Amino acid sequence: MFGDLFEEDDSSVSHNQYGKGKKLKTKAVEPPPPREFTNLSGIRNQGGTCYLNSLLQTLHFTPEFREALFSLGPEELGSLEDKDKPDAKVRIIPLELQRLFAQLLLLDQEAASTADLTDSFGWTSNEEMRQHDVQELNRILFSALETSLVGTSGHDLINRLYHGTIVNQIVCKECKNVSEKQEDFLDLTVAVKNVSGLEDALWNMYVEEEIFDSDNLYHCGTCDRLVKAAKEENSKPDVNLKDLQNEEEIDDPLMILKTILLQEESNLIPVDQLGQKLLKKIGISWNKKYRKQYGPLRKFLQLHSQTFLLSSDESTVRLLKNSTLQAEPDFQRNDQQIFKTLPSESPGFNGRTSCPHWFDINDSKVQPIKEKDIQQQFQGKESAYMLFYRKSQLQRPPEARGNPRYRVPRHLLSEMDAANIELQTKRAECDSTENNFELHLHLGPHYHFFNGALHPVGSQTESVWDLTFDKRKTLGDLRQSIFQLLEFWEGDMVLSVAKLLPAGLHVYQTLDGDSLTLSEIELADGEDIFVWNGVEVGGIQIPAGRDCEPLLLNVLHLATSSEGGKCQQLIEFPHVFPSNAEVGTVFTSLAIPGGVVLINNTESIGEKNWTTIPKVDLKKTFREQGLRNGSSILIRDSNHDNSLLAKQEKWITSMNEIDWLQVKNLCELESEEEQVRISATVNTVVFDIRIKAIQELKLMKELAENSCLRPIDRNGKLLCPVPDNYTLKEAGLKMGSSLGLCPGRAPTSSQLFLFFAVGSDVQPGTEMEIIVEETLSVRDCLKIMLEKSGLLGDAWHLRKMDWCYEAGEPLCDEDATLKELTICSGDTLLLIEGKLPPLGFLTVPIWWYQPQHPSGHWKSHQDRRNCTPSQGGIWRAISAQGAPGDVHAEVSLHYLGDIDISEDATLMELKSQAMTLPSFSEFVIPSPAFLRAWTVESKRPSRLLRADQQQLKEYKLGRRTEICLEPLQKEENLGPQDVLLRTQMRLPGERAYALPMNMVWDAARGWTAGSLRQRVADFYSLPVEKIEIAKYFPEKFEWLPISSWNQQITKRKKKKKQDNLQGAPYHLKDGDTIGVKNLLAEDDDDFSTVTDDIGKEKQKQLALGKRKSQEALRVQSSHVFSGAETPARPRGPEASLSIHVGSFR
């Protein structure tokens, strides 16, 4: 399914300098929307699971698969309620698949979730964010289902529906002997380029004859010599694919015999061979299956003389030409994105009628699409990657037509009915708040007009008020409500739509028609309304309307020296002009006598981007010249040249097309040249390049048999050797690339070239290399690598380096071969110290975390605050403790040790086991309930683990998770919507904060800025309009103010995105630090501290030092590898896909 796969729907949160509202609007969490008019349900994308959604929708729209799965009841599969019981035999994957299909059929929601299904796969949150190949997923999912259904009536479900056979035949042209080989398959790969349809593609790939003649003769076993022969593969879907057979065809011997004869050349076959092929095709002989009802085979053929022609001696039989199979088109197309539903097959909701139609299913969205649009879509670069076909002759029973409840198990019907009732109740509750929207009232008496726009005067909270209002009420009702709110107002009140622009607030049209509803006048949610007398503000008449919209432009001109002359310095400053003003007014506004005006509408100030405005065009307006906010204007004397502009930009000429490769001598042999350029094309074979390089480098001819070419990446690292028989295109080598001529042969097709290193902190270029057989087991590979590294002992394991150059998941199955684990040439394996825990167990490093709190919290036996412990397992920066303003920057983690614990254990059991560690004896903790658990990322607490009775596997921790424990003064029981924040009150008159305090915020009614501000105000017993809050980003030493409403105003008639602190730019989560400022004591915009200034300065110095070291490294490496770029961590290969299945044998 195509679409914007990586587009995130983050709510935009404002940094508005004005908006601090006095009233708040909090929205309840909305239930999922109902199905749209198509009556079909989509599937939500978990971040990177579009390929999974495509496959699941395809299987869901295959009635035979869906209903075969539904036919398996709880007595065979078990119950999901028992999945956590130790002795229960619950087949979770088919159960979750059943439940998902039932939701797609019956649940009245726009899109279903696959979270429970991917949990049953054993996937972590990281795997749900990765893209994978849908064909690979299909094979792995089918394999997982087969394993899960062992011992049930559905053990052959996949084999029965999707299994097929390819028959490879080689026919000797001399003796007509047939050599035959059969291969099983679940899917077929075909080339679709330059073919008219599927039948042509199948014919080209599997049916068309290949002739062995001339230099390519075939050795016939019967003739015992080389002869001419013909090879063909037969996989005709309506003949050989078992998934296209049904019981009626098997029960009809006439259809089976006709099908077999259609496969034969000239439709002729000996009668004895016909019986053998019948046995091979249906798995049972004629005598056992048909003799009792139809008599002997020859008699049956004689009785059907209108179809079959027996020879005079009844030894051979052929099919008459007028009796070939009359079949409808064999396939109905169902691909990743497009589905066609028929009235008998459409799983519509609540039995509503539907008509045949194509639908475009793009994750959550389902929309109808016309056939011509499908054809147009697949005429371009995009092409269907994986197609599912279903035999058109398969008929649905009458009771299944328009009945989505058909064959759905009773327990799932009850569950879906209850869920629909609950959804209806929640939607009814939510409907009462749907008609409310928010308006931002800008009060005219608190604004003044200068520099072309309106700006607030004095306090921000007095300038802008937020009002929540019912959009079904009239404009007159709104005016009356504002009159009641503004008791100080005197005279007429005019309401005008305004908009915040870079230059300031600008007034547009006035709202008229007091009898019209706010919906009828198309007032948008989050609209800015300017409240004024309609004439002037502060004694100044206000220009209104789009024509005079203020533009904030960047003005550049030569500075004037103290003597009055022009100095050679180009200065830039912002200035506001009305968009309907003439461009020539720029001279008057800036008090410049005259000159030449150049304009630039791009971000670059290079010479090529400037356009000179002729004098005659100076009377045109700024808008007519195409200027917009952020455009630049350059004013210079008429006799001035463009030399200053030329200095601003480097002119780059295009390079000629490259048609060569650079080969460096890395064989440790002296030669006249260190490197040579070899001319090549994309179709040049690597072997030819290697031999030519040896000749031009004038090296020994013996290297031709014992050398290889290895690509050199931009860091100077040698990559995996390239096979000699590859072309440059097949090897993925680009023209102009650098290759190293190295000693040693490239690995064969059955060997793997691997990099390996010790530990997880690996620097590029320091890895060791090894060539091993792909059939080698993980255990044997580990032994070889340990031996080559000079390491002893058996307390080691292997991990595959992931795409971000970090240690990935461990290779747990040490008996599996490298090929089975999809280890490929060029992969990097890491030798990690420590033996892997048993299957189902985790080895979790435990850290002690004690942030600074007010007195009264738990302490260790020894006050460790002013000393550095002798143990090395501590992450922290030592500073003068207790100093205000320093606490938010300090994180102290003390390593306690590792624990081995089952994934089925609860969080409480993990805390209890951690308390038994020897290092824990230093601390006095009454019970595990007085501990708070966090995951550790980047040496900081990251995710809060709540619900002590929840099992560890439900947290999706993964095998690399580390946990830190924080002491509590009292027990806590956080709900699922509770957010734990650390608040700090700013000390008046100082750039510092008091010690942090834990605050619990109930975000059940929405993650809005207004809700958080209200909670902070209540926590500190202050009026909400008298506080300012900001979130602290310790890694940047920055504070981001959290305003009470959103500055981002969308276009009219479009709904504003909901203000959500979980989205950008705040990304608020448990454990974040919130700074609080009391406006009664201090009224400025600064949240920063002295520590922040020091931290930013250190970051600046580190960045500068890093830049210098990179520059030095680049200069140094250029002597070895010319043209090498700045070293960077290379992107590793994509992680492999797997589904974890329990054993049911």
3D structure, described in words:
- With 1145 residues, the protein is of the alpha+beta class.
- The protein has 27 helices and 50 strands.
- The strands form 14 sheets. A six-stranded mixed sheet has the order 41-42-40-45-43-44. Strands 20-17-23-21-22 form a five-stranded mixed sheet.
- Strand 26 (550-560) and strand 27 (566-578) form a beta hairpin.
- The radius of gyration is 38 Å and the shape is globular.
- The N terminus is likely disordered.
- InterPro entries: Papain-like_cys_pep_sf (IPR038765), Peptidase_C19 (IPR050164), Peptidase_C19_UCH (IPR001394), UBL_USP40 (IPR057763), USP (IPR028889), USP_CS (IPR018200).
- It comes from Equus przewalskii (Przewalski's horse).
- One of its GO terms (molecular function) is hydrolase activity.
- This is Ubiquitin carboxyl-terminal hydrolase 40 isoform X4.
- Keywords: Hydrolase.
Task: Provide keyphrases for this structure.
1145 residues; alpha+beta; 5-stranded mixed sheet; 27 helices; globular; Peptidase_C19; Ubiquitin carboxyl-terminal hydrolase 40 isoform X4
Determine the N-to-C terminus distance. Answer: 36 Å
- Major β-sheet profile: 6 strands, mixed
Give the tally of β-strands.
50
Shape: globular
The helix/strand class is alpha+beta
Contiguous runs where pLDDT drops below 50 for at least 5 residues: 1-28, 236-249, 324-337, 342-346, 349-354, 643-657, 854-872, 874-889, 1045-1058, 1120-1134
| Mean model confidence by pLDDT | 78
Return Rg in Å: 38 Å
Which strands sit side by side, in order, in the main sheet? Answer: 41-42-40-45-43-44
- The DSSP helix count reads 27
Strand content: 15-25%
* Helix percentage range: 10-25%
Biased composition (Acidic residues): 1-11
Domain USP: 41-392
Pfam families: UBL_USP40 (PF25822), UCH (PF00443)
Protein name: Ubiquitin carboxyl-terminal hydrolase 40 isoform X4
